Structure formats: C-alpha cells, structure tokens
UniProtKB/TrEMBL annotation, chain A:
<feature type="transmembrane region" description="Helical">
    <location>
        <begin position="158"/>
        <end position="178"/>
    </location>
</feature>
<keyword id="KW-1133">Transmembrane helix</keyword>
<keyword id="KW-0812">Transmembrane</keyword>
<keyword id="KW-0472">Membrane</keyword>
<feature type="transmembrane region" description="Helical">
    <location>
        <begin position="73"/>
        <end position="90"/>
    </location>
</feature>
<feature type="transmembrane region" description="Helical">
    <location>
        <begin position="6"/>
        <end position="28"/>
    </location>
</feature>
<feature type="transmembrane region" description="Helical">
    <location>
        <begin position="102"/>
        <end position="122"/>
    </location>
</feature>
<dbReference type="Pfam" id="PF04172">
    <property type="entry name" value="LrgB"/>
</dbReference>
<feature type="transmembrane region" description="Helical">
    <location>
        <begin position="49"/>
        <end position="67"/>
    </location>
</feature>
From TrEMBL, chain B:
<dbReference type="GO" id="GO:0005886">
    <property type="term" value="C:plasma membrane"/>
</dbReference>
<feature type="transmembrane region" description="Helical">
    <location>
        <begin position="31"/>
        <end position="54"/>
    </location>
</feature>
<keyword id="KW-1133">Transmembrane helix</keyword>
<protein>
    <submittedName>
        <fullName>CidA/LrgA family protein</fullName>
    </submittedName>
</protein>
<keyword id="KW-0472">Membrane</keyword>
<feature type="transmembrane region" description="Helical">
    <location>
        <begin position="66"/>
        <end position="85"/>
    </location>
</feature>
<keyword id="KW-1003">Cell membrane</keyword>
<dbReference type="InterPro" id="IPR005538">
    <property type="entry name" value="LrgA/CidA"/>
</dbReference>
<keyword id="KW-0812">Transmembrane</keyword>
Length: 240, 127
C-alpha cells in the first residue's frame, strides 16, 4: 500500500463492497434531496442516482460488469419486492375488489396503448428494427421486459434501459399530467402510473398516496402478464 | 423478521419453480405475489395458519420495509445506460422522444378508461 497508492484502489474497485456502498450512499443522498424538495417530480431519486453513479464509473474507468458485481445485491431485491406487493394489496382488498371492472378494462386499454404506441412511434422515427423490438416491452418491469426482448431475439440490455427511462419519465410526468386532466381519483391515477411506468411509477405513487400505490402495484403486476402475451402479437402485426 | 423475509423468498422460489417447470409466460415473482396473497387470505379463515411470520403482522412489516425503498432497487439496472452510450449518441433523441410520447399516451389512455368505466358503473347503480 505504501509503495503504490493505487493498489488500494485497484483492490477496492474490484470488490463488491465498494460498488454496493456507492449505490446505497448515492441513492440515500438523492432520496434525501427528493424528500427536502417535498418529493418534487424532477428530483426523482432514481434519475439522479443513475447519472451520478454512471459518471463516476466513466471517470474511474470502471466497467458496468464490475459495478454490477456489487450492485446485484440491490438488483436482486426487485423479485422479493414484487412478492411484497401482496401485502398492500391484501390490506386494501375491499377497495380493490369493488373496482375490479374499471381496473380490468383500463388494463386492456392501457397495455394495448403502451405496446402499439411505442412500436408505431419507433417505426415512424425510423429506428432500426432491433431497437424497435427492444423498446416494445418498455412499460413492464425490468426482469420481464428483458425476458420478452430475449424471446424476440432483440437486445435485453437495451430493453432494460428503455424500461428504466420509461419508468423515470412516467414518474416525473404523472403528477403534473394527472393534475391537468383534473382526475382526483387516486385509484385511477395510481393504476395508470403502475401500468405505464411499472415499479418506478409505483414507487412514485406510494410517495403521493397509499391507495395510488396499491393500485399502481396491481397495474404493474397485471401488465407484466398482459404484455408478455401482447408484445409478440403486436410485433408480428406491426413491425415490417 | 428473518422468518418473514424467508417466507417472501419462499413464495418467489415456488413462483419461479412453477413458472419454469410449466413454461408459463409470466414472471415468477408475480406468481409469488399471488401465493403470498392467498396465504394472507387463508390465514384469516383458518386459525391454524396464523403462526410464525403470518402472526402479529410479521410478514406485513417485512414487506413494507422492502417497499419503502422500491426506487432504490432500480438503480443498478438504470446505471446500465453507460453500456448504451454509443446507441444513445446515434439514436438517443429519437428513443427518448418515442418513449416520452408513448408514456404520456399510455397514462392518459389508462386513467381516462378507468374513470369512464367507473362513472358508467356508478350511473348504472344509481338507476
């Protein structure tokens, strides 16, 4: 260590400990800023944590693979967190059962709109075919979208990036957009957030209102189901 | 706390196993969610099940702990954007615009359908 000040860095930068610590601390700070701004949509903690960590990796010349070796412990918890959505669903089951019909109709309308709109717009923008295919499942949660992209022989890592970008933009835009439409029903607002912007939309919905969060979680789970069936169908019909 | 986390993981594990085993086109954790929901509902009906993490709000507390920082869990995948800088340099603006427009259209289609249908149902009830 004394003879070479870089040896400590070389050791640490390869260990999961450093990158796990960086992920947690950067997120803790961006979340604190978000809280201090009273959860302003533009202070989205995921967005800011993402570019700060990304810039740090680029500056230190660290590969994403090395970073992910540490950050995977956080990434892994996405699965258990999905299971955990059962609890708010259980606690609010009466409200959920009483709005089952609007939920199911909105689910079909929303899922179809999500897939068809992104495929048509991407074709219109003249994006390459494999990009169009990777963008198609962007409204569902990361793990599911990657699986769908894989089955279409598209690029799963691009699909994951499209999912996160969609989630962040959805989470930023949902509150101002819904205020403008004048919809005050937090069941409907939450359901739309979860359907269009999966877990990041759901995290945002829980910040705004508990009922919105519950409906958002349901929308996210149901949309994962519907989109898995819908994307292959839409791609066959719409992609040249 | 430990038993509650274990129960959550067990639900996911069974979900993944069933999905893989039967080749179902749905994510394992979603099946795990259904399983935990069924367990919670069954617990209220059969007193026998109300033990371990299913007693005194054990699994409820653990789940709320996990969900409290749901956003954090998306950060590692989000940082993956550093691998796609070439693609974003060539098609970034188009991709962002396409995703932004699509998310706005999807939000509006969903929320307006939800409102429309629940309003229609309420009118029907009133009649």
């Amino acid at each position: 260590m004394k003879d070479n000040p870089f040896s400590l860095w070389v050791y640490l930068s390869q260990s999961p400990l450093l990158w796990l610590t960086v992920t947690l601390l950067v997120y803790a700070s961006t979340d604190a800023v978000s809280l201090a701004s009273r959860r302003h949509p533009l202070a989205n903690p995921v967005l800011h944590a993402m570019w700060i960590i990304g810039a740090f990796l680029l500056v230190t010349g660290t590969s994403y693979t090395t970073y992910f070796a540490g950050a995977q412990f956080v990434h892994f918890l996405l699965g258990p967190a999905t299971v955990a959505l059962a609890v708010p669903l259980y606690e609010n089951r009466r409200r959920v059962v009483s709005s089952i019909v609007p939920m199911l109709v909105a689910l079909v309308a929303g899922s179809v709109t999500a897939v068809v709109s992104v495929v048509l717009l991407a074709e219109l923008a003249g994006l390459p075919r494999d990009v169009v295919l990777s963008l198609a499942p962007k409204s569902v949660t990361a793990g599911v979208a990657m699986g769908i992209a894989e089955s279409l022989h598209a690029d799963p890592s691009l699909a994951a990036v499209a999912v996160i970008l969609t989630g962040i933009m959805g989470a930023i835009i949902v509150t101002p957009l819904m205020n403008r439409t004048g919809v005050t029903d937090f069941r409907a607002r939450g359901f739309a957030a979860g359907l269009a912007a999966h877990g990041i939309g759901t995290a945002r919905a829980f910040q705004v209102d508990e009922i919105a969060g519950v409906f958002s979680g349901i929308a996210m789970s149901l949309n994962a189901l519907v989109t898995s069936f819908l994307v292959p169908l839409a791609v066959t019909l719409l992609v040249r | 706390m430990l038993a509650s986390l274990g129960l959550i993981l067990l639900c996911q594990l069974i979900g993944e196993a069933v999905v893989r085993g039967l080749g179902l086109p749905l994510p394992g954790p979603v099946l795990g969610l259904l399983l935990l929901l069924i367990l919670l509902l069954a617990r209220d009906r059969f007193a026998l099940l109300a033990c371990g993490p299913l007693r005194n709000g054990g699994v409820e507390t653990a789940s709320k702990g996990l969900l409290a920082h749901l956003s954090l869990l998306f950060v590692p995948a989000g940082v993956g954007v550093v691998q796609k800088l070439d693609l974003l340099a060539s098609h970034g603006v188009a991709i962002i615009l396409v995703l932004a427009l699509s998310v706005v259209v999807t939000l509006l289609a969903t929320v307006l359908t939800f409102r429309l249908v629940s309003r229609l149902l309420r009118q029907q009830d009133a009649r």
